[in-house]
Each structure stands twice: as structure tokens, then as C-alpha cells.
Amino acid sequence: NNYIKTSKYTLLTFLPLNLLEQFQRLANFYFLCLLVLQLIPAISSLTPITTAIPLIGVLMLTAVKDAYDDIQRHMSDSHVNNRKSKTLRNGKLVDERWSGVQVGDIIRMENNQFVAADILLLSSSEPNGLCFIETAELDGETNLKCKQCLVETAEMSQHDELLGKFNGEIICEPPNNLLNKFDGTLLWKNQRFSLDNDKILLRGCVLRNTQWCYGVVVFAGKDTKLMQNSGKTKFKSTSIDRLLNFIIIGIVFFLLSICAFCTVACAIWEGLIGQYFQVYLPWPNIIPNGTIQGATVIGLLVFFSYAIVLNTVVPISLYVSVEVIRFAQSFLINWDEKMHHKKTNTSAKARTTTLNEELGQIQYIFSDKTGTLTQNIMTFNKCSISGKSYGDVLDTRTGEIVDLAD
């Protein structure tokens, strides 16, 4: 079918997948290990709640942010899947949702309408079976491209009965992500017709300057070239995340060095002095009676105790601050007046809270011409035909139109 899905989670998979992603951050994993250590009474002097509450708070805040992002994807998928497309059913045109369109269906498209799936053009309103499409969603090009159907199928025009009886067999390449290549063969009426990319309309294109056209669905849903190029939604680690992980590694090594120094100092103190104060500071039952062995065991246990006591050296609140900043900046992008298009009353929309970081990672932009990044708009200024002047005279100093009658 033609159903698409770009979201990462469902209600069942959200909790395990999101926790798996969050524990890829070293600080979260560190505090999880710390929480496990605090559950061991022999080495812990603090209650596990002191670590559990901040860790759960960070995980919940990040989970809420990730859920918000994924809900936006679900809403976008639902909007696309519920778009209407006229589909031939039993020789009659009916309104069918995009998700209900299947391979082999014949659909009709009107001018300025999105193409629901990868289709083979059968007929159009233009002479010689021509039609024009805009591929801005595929390759960013706003100039129109011309497509032409087979002469034999163009004769069916918009006769629903003839189109409904179309029983051709299409043999073509498997689904791939090559936008400018298609190889196939149409077997129809005991004849073979060669198919190429000029006869295929891809999903995401918009029909332009063509009143109507008909086509048969070749690829649908995740098999379309648009979805083949989109790839699978996955966890993306931004440069800020990698920097934070690097900083956390350095802090953890610093913490381990402090714990190691305290361990050695404690073992020496217990071996030289502490053994004489067992009346006031008794050694646990698990420690052997030997002075050297007992001091060594105490030192090893104290290593984990110091790791628990000094856990605040690792700033778990740093991730909370970064998540709040990301969330706030995504709204600032949406509210930016300089990115508001007045003609269409359209504002910028950050579809993910990490958009600001991802844009900040761009180092080079390659463009084949200036029109790709700007707009090539030509406006009529002035011309002379048969000695008669047409057009307004502009004052270059003020930019106002000069009335020649004055």
C-alpha cells in the first residue's frame, strides 16, 4: 500500500527505545552505574534516592522533548496519509486516501495537485500526452519538467471505462533511490513498449500547467523514490552531544583519579593507625583479620564509597540545561519575524528541537547557480515597439513612478 511512516516510536516501543538512546550519553550511563552501586549497603553511605531523583528527572525531561518531536512526525504522517486522491474503482472515480492507494491503481490528478505515488503516465489533457511537473520537494528545482506518455495509451484520454479496463503488465527495475533513472517495459495488447524516466511521475512532484492526467501506480509507500531517499529516522548525535560526552569522560577520569588517591591514603591510614581504633571504628565482618589484607580490602571498598560521595563532580544538570536551551531555541526559530514570508503568511517551522545544532554544523554550501539559493524573478521594466514606448518611468533617486504628462 501507499502508507508512509517517518516517526521513530510507537506507544509500545517508546520507553525501551528512548531509554536506549538516552543511555548512549555517558553522563546518564554513569549515574545509572552509580545508582546500582548505591544499592549495595557495604559500600554506600548515601540513600539511592539522592541519585535516582535527578536521574529520573533528566530522563523524563528528555523523554518529553523526544515525544513532542515524534508526535509532530506522527501528525505530519497522518496529514500526508489522509490526503485525497481520485482513484478508479470499478470504472468510476472515487476519493481515496493516499494510504489506501495500491500498486496497479489508476489515479487522476488535477492541476497543482501532489502526485500520490510513483506512477506511469497514461494520458493527459495536453496535446501529444505532455504534462508538466515541479520537482521542488525532490531536488529543489522550481523550473518545470516535461513528461510525455506513450502515444498508444494517450488515446484513452479521460475515458474512465477505457482506463478502467487497462490490463497492461509492467516489468521494471526493483525500488531504488535514483531520481533520474527508470528502466522498464510495458506489455499491452500483445506489444512491448519501452519505458524510461520521461514517462514516470514521482511521488512529491506537483502537476503544473496541466488540466488533468491519468497514471497507473508502479511504486507506492516506502518503495517510492522519495521515501527510498529519505532513509530511516535514527538517533542523531549532534556536535554538542559529542562535546559533552568528551567533557564527561575527562571529568570521570578526574573523579577516578581522586578516588584512587583517597583509596591509597585510606589503606595506608587503616594499616598504620586505624587498626588500633577498631573499638570505636570496627572493621566489618567481611574483612580478614590480617592487618595488611584488612587495610587493602577497606581501601578497595572505600574506592566505591568515594565515587558515590563525590558523584556531584559530574554535572548531570548540564544535560538538563542543554535540553531546555534546545527546546526554547526551536520556538525562537518559529517566532523569528525575519523568517516570516508575508506573501503566503508562512512562518519558519522547526520540526525537531535539535535543528539549531544541526544547522550550526554546516560548513560548506555547494550550489550550481545563484537561483538555487535565491530567486530569479524577472519583472517588466520598459520597452519600445514601433516607436511607441511602453512601461513606467522610474525616478532612480526616489524610486517613484514619474508621470510624463506632468
Calculate the terminal CA-CA distance, rounded to whole Å.
Answer: 68 Å
Order the strands across the largest sheet as they lie in space: 2-1-3-12-4-10
Radius of gyration based on Cα positions = 34 Å
Order of helices and strands: HHHEEEEEHEHHEEEEEEHHHHHEEEE
Question: What's the tally of helices?
Answer: 11
| pLDDT < 50 runs, ≥5 residues | none
Strands, total number: 16
Summed over residues and divided by their number, the pLDDT gives a mean of 83
The proportion of residues in beta strands is 15-25%
Sheet of most strands: 6 strands, antiparallel
Taken from the alpha-carbon principal axes, the silhouette is: elongated
Percent range of helical residues: 25-40%
Number of domain units: 2
Q: What structural class do helix, strand and pairing data support?
A: alpha+beta
Question: Can you describe this structure?
Answer:
This protein is an alpha+beta fold. It has two domains: about 15-80 and about 235-320, no CATH class; about 85-230, Calcium-transporting ATPase, cytoplasmic transduction domain A, CATH 2.70.150. The protein has eleven helices and 16 strands. The protein has helices at about 15-20, 25-40, 50-80, 135-140, 150-155, 160-165, 225-230, 240-270, 290-310, 315-335, 355-360; strands at about 85-90, 90-95, 105-110, 120-125, 130-135, 145-150, 170, 185-190, 190-195, 200, 205-210, 210-220, 380-385, 390, 395, 400. The strands form five sheets. It has a six-stranded antiparallel β-sheet. The radius of gyration is 34 Å and the shape is elongated. The protein starts with 13 loop residues before the first helix and ends with a strand. The mean pLDDT is about 85.
